[in-house]
């Protein structure tokens, strides 16, 4: 369907929100990748002040096995093992946006802090100003239910943007229509590679 329209969905750890949207969009035929912007991958632990912290190079499968060994019941009950199982069926390991050299037509971030980190990354990279990219933020809480709702919203937005004949000139109107429809505000900026 949309092979020529390259999309990336970005959250902090490339675990929940970005991966749920990645899964949903790829099932709809979109050319999509997902990333995180954090320095480390953080997953809930046995207490709020005791998260499980991993490097971005670790595989989803290794995280799954580690948490299964640490406390199978806890991580089954809170949905983390289910989430990691989904993730390992999509790709091998989380990826950090700042380490990617790929170019996209559309970047969708799932929280304002991540949006700011993506913009900062663009400021720090050398540009040739030859390809525009639209960066859009939709705030999505980092829990399983919101990630699912967020994936539907992101898919709806991507479908609206993809259908545009002149995205650069119509993006603001499309975003206004989308905001009105989903009752959430979005942030938008255009950058260049």
Automatic annotation (TrEMBL):
The yes or no answer to whether the keyword Cell wall biogenesis/degradation is present is: no
Q: What class of enzyme is it?
A: hydrolase
Tell me, in one coarse class, where this protein mainly resides. Answer: nucleus
**Could you name the domain of life of the organism this protein comes from?**
Eukaryota
Under Gene3D superfamilies, the record lists:
3.40.50.2300
**Per the UniProt record, which EC number(s) apply here?**
3.1.3.16
Q: Which reaction does it catalyse?
A: O-phospho-L-seryl-[protein] + H2O = L-seryl-[protein] + phosphate; O-phospho-L-threonyl-[protein] + H2O = L-threonyl-[protein] + phosphate
Cite a single Pfam family from the UniProt record.
Ssu72
Going by the UniProt record, its keywords in alphabetical order are:
Hydrolase, mRNA processing, Nucleus, Protein phosphatase
Cell location = Nucleus
| Record function comment | Protein phosphatase that catalyzes the dephosphorylation of the C-terminal domain of RNA polymerase II. Plays a role in RNA processing and termination.
Q: Which family does it belong to?
A: Belongs to the SSU72 phosphatase family.
Q: Which PANTHER family match?
A: RNA POLYMERASE II SUBUNIT A C-TERMINAL DOMAIN PHOSPHATASE
Instruction: Indicate what this protein is called per its UniProt record.
Output: RNA polymerase II subunit A C-terminal domain phosphatase SSU72
- What gene does this protein come from? LOC101853036
